[in-house]
Amino acid sequence: MLIEVSPADLAGCRYAISPVIETTSALRVLTGHDRAGVLHPWVRRMRPRLAPLRRAEPALGALISLFRRDDNADFLHPSPAGPHSSFAEELATVRATPLSVARAELDRNLAGHRTPPAYAQRILAAPDVVDRLADGLRAAWETLIEPEWPRLRAVLERDIVQRAGRLAAYGWAAALTDLHPRISWSPAGAIVVRHRDTGRYRLDGRGLLFVPSLFADLALGVDPPQPYALVYRARGSADVLGPPVTPTGDALGPLIGGARAAILRALAAPATTSQLVAQLGLSLGTVGGHLAVLRAAGLVTRTRTGRSVTYVASPLGEALRTPG
After folding, report:
1. Which of 154, 261, 272, 305 could form a disulfide with 252 if both were Cys (CB 3.0 to 4.6 A apart)?
2. For 101-158, how does the pLDDT look when each residue is reduced to its tens digit (9 = 90+)?
3. pTM for the structure as a whole
C-alpha cells in the first residue's frame, strides 16, 4: 500500500486516543484473535475475568463473534475526535448509528466469515442490535480497561507528545521511524505499508490521523467518509501491561536492588500501589515499602487525587532509569 502525501498533509496530521479502539483491541488480544506477544502477562492476568464477563453480558460474545482480520463493522470503532475523547463520548457515537447503516456494515462483516453461534445470531438480528453491541463494549471497558485507564492513557499521551514533536520538527521520515516494521517512508513522497491492500491512496491535504494503542499492533483505515487513520503500537506497552524488561547489562538492579529497579522502571507511567502489585506480582507490603524508600531517595514522587495516590518516577529517577 502507498499513501501519497503532500506538504499540506504535514500540517493536517492529527493524533488521537480512542478508548473504544483500546477496548476492542484488548478483546482481540484476550480472545486470541490477535497475537499477544509482549502482552502475555496482561493476558494471563485478565483471562480469568473473561468467562464471567461473557456470561453476564451475552452481547459481548456476539461482538467477539464479529472479529476478523478485515472488513469489521466500522460503526463499532468510530474515528476518535482527538487526544481527549472519553469512552462515554465514543460510545454515544456508536449508539447513534442508524439501524440501516449498522445492518449494512454487519452484513459486510459477516460475508465470508464463520457463522456466529445461535445466541449471537439472535442478538445480531435483533432490532436493538446497536444498543446491545454497545452494551457489550461498555461491559468490556468497565472490566478490562477502565480500572487502569489513567495509567494506560498516560503512556498513550506520552507517545503522542514524542511522536508529534518528531513529525513537526523533522518531518515524515522521522515520525515513521520505529512506528512499525511494515511501515517505511519513500523519498518520492509516500508512506509505504506492507499490507494485503496494495492500493494507492492520496491524503490530498487532509493529513493522517495517528492513533497510538497499547493493544493493537497495526491497523489502517482508508474507507471514506472516515479520515485516513493509522493505529499503531505505542512505545511502553510491554512495560505498562507486564513486568518491565531488564535491559542487557543492567546496572540499576545491583545499585538499588532488583525489586526497586523493577518498580522504578514500571513508573515510566504513573501507577498506584495496587496497579504495581498487579503488574509486578509483588505483595502490597513489599511494593509499599520499596515505594517509601524510593520516595525518600527522591527517585519517585506521588500525587493524591481523592482517595487515590499515584506514583511516578521523578526527573532524577527517570535519569537513573534510562541512562544515556
Report:
1. 261
2. 999 999 999 999 999 999 999 999 999 999 999 999 999 999 999 988 987 888 888 7
3. 0.81
Instruction: Please check whether residues 128 and 24 belong to one and the same domain.
Output: yes
Q: Let me know whether 191 and 169 are in one domain.
A: yes
Residues 24, 76, single domain; the answer is: yes
Tell which of 237, 272, 297 closes a domain: 237
- Do 116 and 93 sit in the same domain of this protein? yes
Report the alpha-carbon distance of residue 290 to residue 284 in Å, rounded: 10
Residues 130 and 159 occupy one common structural domain? no
- The alpha helices in 34-83, defined as continuous H runs, are 40-56, 58-65
Work out how many domains the chain is built from and give that number: 3
Rounded CA-CA distance 141/219 in Å is: 20
> How far apart, in Å, are the Cα atoms of 296 and each of 272, 274, 292, 302, 308?
17, 20, 6, 11, 20
pLDDT bracket for residue 268 (50, 70, 90):
confident
CA-based nearest residue to 241, from 83, 29, 21: 29
Helix locations, the chain, DSSP H = 7-12, 19-30, 40-56, 58-65, 87-95, 99-110, 118-125, 129-140, 149-170, 172-176, 237-241, 252-256, 258-266, 273-280, 284-296, 315-321
The pLDDT tens digits of the residues spanning 162-198 come to 888 888 888 898 888 888 999 999 988 899 999 888 8
Q: Which of 198, 221, 237 finishes a domain?
A: 237
**Which letter does DSSP use for residue 37 in this model?**
G
* Cα–Cα nearest to 140, from 39, 38, 29: 29
Tell me which residue range forms the domain holding 39: 19-148
Spatial distance between the Cα atoms of 106 and 129, rounded to a whole number of angstroms: 10
**CATH (domain of 287):** 1.10.10.10
For residue 46, what pLDDT is reported? 93
For the chain, give the mean pLDDT. Answer: 90
